[in-house]
């Protein structure tokens, strides 16, 4: 991935930056409040990151744009609030939530790792994934991830394990499933053995059923049935909502196709104002659909949303079936114990049939135990490989800290500090530098390194030069920001360093990076995305 251009604004004021090169880029100024952090955050925000903009900047009123090269293909992203539009080769996609955009990224542009979260296998959000190559200026915490809320440092580690090829949860989840199956088989064998004994002692009792149950058992069963019924009801509500949304989208398709028919036959215009421009609103953005190509793309996007709703309907129907099966099982299993002994399906098994069933079930248990042993070996390998990864990353970090300062007292033993213990001053920046270099060297990922305030904490000039030399060695795009002291700025510090693309922001007005001069180019971008003009006024 390479960043080609970043911008933000609306039709009245905007800012665009397109001076990035393939190597090391440094956005710098003599003072703060020149817009460096806004640009650094905008790059990631446009592609799904959570907002960590400086206070006082009302980012919800602006569009954020990034043009990038990913796997030798050009992609353009435009975001407003939680709606992100993507344009690529033969691609135009509108995602009106970050979850939808996450899935779109994973399926169409680049793969995101998955972790176990809340007992479910989930693709990680861009916010967590981007932390392997992005360091923001605000909300830093060496004892946890940045801006931790939905995720924490354990999730970050689990994500690294997935990237390493040894997910931490696959083995645990599969072993739990095997143990549950073995437990159920053993219960079944126990019932069959009781059935054998009872049949031998009472050969004439095949049709006997016990209808009694005490009040305590009945109360327990009642609560369990109530819980299952509530879950079934919840899934039915979800299915109904998805069906309503699907029907609305299908109706919208009909309306758009009707507009298309009328446009081909004549001219459509507003009866109130006489305008011939027609807009369609999706999420936070309105699109001009008087253009036939835009209508076609919007219709294609709506069809994808319809497919997504159909997937939700299908998933909820599966869940309804699962819980209905559980309901049936509870109703069957909670019968009085004598019924468990006597009844198997709807008929009494003969002694021979019981013996055969027990033998088959015991073989199934042996097979599951063999799988469990294989899984244990796999689990051991997974732990060993991930521990090896941890050691190698920490080793690279310790090599880097010795390069920065041979006399440093720091020795990294974990990827995060202990809870409540944070690096401060220059040590904090040294920690993040060593970590981002180590993650890049170990995983050899295809993303640029993006570090806001890369020398924060009064990093010495000698250490800064070492850092820049290390960034140059990695042979990929690096985007840094820095605030210079007066004497450093006057000496044209970064312009004098070889193989550094110095981007001077000193001429920007304080707290006013958005300008009128960039609006024409930004309006061209909004028009490219077919954004309705009234949506930005």
Protein architecture, described:
The protein has 13 helices and 15 strands. α5 (169-201) packs antiparallel against α9, α6 (215-265) runs antiparallel to α7 (292-333) and α9 (351-404) crosses α10 (426-443). Mean pLDDT is 84; it is low at 204-216, 265-269 and 335-348. By secondary structure, the chain is of the alpha/beta class. The strands form four sheets. The chain has a six-stranded antiparallel sheet with strand order 2-1-4-5-6-7, sandwiched between helices. β13 (449-451), α11 and β14 (478-483) form a beta-alpha-beta unit. Among the domains are: 1-110 and 446-452 and 466-487 and 499-537, Rossmann fold; 214-334, Helix Hairpins (Orthogonal Bundle).
Quick rundown:
The chain is of the alpha/beta class. It contains 13 helices and 15 strands.
List keywords for this structure.
single chain; alpha/beta; Rossmann fold; Helix Hairpins; six-stranded antiparallel β-sheet; five-stranded parallel β-sheet; flat
What percent strand?
5-15%
CATH class of one domain: Alpha Beta
Instruction: Report the mean per-residue pLDDT as an integer.
Output: 84
Round the Cα radius of gyration to an integer and report it.
Answer: 31 Å
What's the number of extended β-strand segments? 15
Q: Main sheet, how many strands, which sense, barrel?
A: 6 strands, antiparallel
- Please bin the fraction of helical residues: 40-55%
What is the tally of helical segments?
13
Distance between the termini: 33 Å
- Based on CA inertia axes, which overall geometry fits? flat
CATH second-level architecture of one domain: 3-Layer(aba) Sandwich
User: What is the CATH topology assignment of one domain?
Assistant: Rossmann fold
Q: Summarize the helix and strand pattern as letters.
A: EEEHEEEEHEEHEHHHEEHHHHEHEHEH
Kindly name the structural category.
alpha/beta
- The spatial strand order of the largest sheet comes to 2-1-4-5-6-7
Low-pLDDT sequence parts: 204-216, 265-269, 335-348
